[in-house]
Design goal:
By secondary structure, the chain is of the alpha+beta class. The chain is built from three helices and three strands. Strands 1-2-3 form a three-stranded antiparallel sheet, covered by helices on one side.
Length: about 70
């Protein structure tokens, strides 16, 4: 999934924050409450890595790759 798609859904749902975790559905903060988005896909490691690469430059990615974080 592309980060742009997620952000569009967040705008429609009036979410302020996005929480992503491997093997979990995305979680949006809506009106102060954390709401699991069970109507969206459950994210695996490749999905999280893809989104991370979409929002970072290679220079920003490097420390994470080097440290394994």
């Amino acid at each position: 999934m592309q980060i742009g798609e997620i952000l569009k859904i967040m705008v429609v749902k009036k979410a302020s924050d996005l929480h992503l975790k491997v093997a979990s559905f995305p979680v949006f903060r809506i009106d102060g409450a954390l709401i699991k988005q069970e109507d969206m896909q459950n994210f695996d490691l490749k999905d999280i890595e893809s989104i991370f690469q979409q929002v970072t430059t290679p220079e920003q990615e490097s420390p994470f790759s080097e440290n394994g974080n």
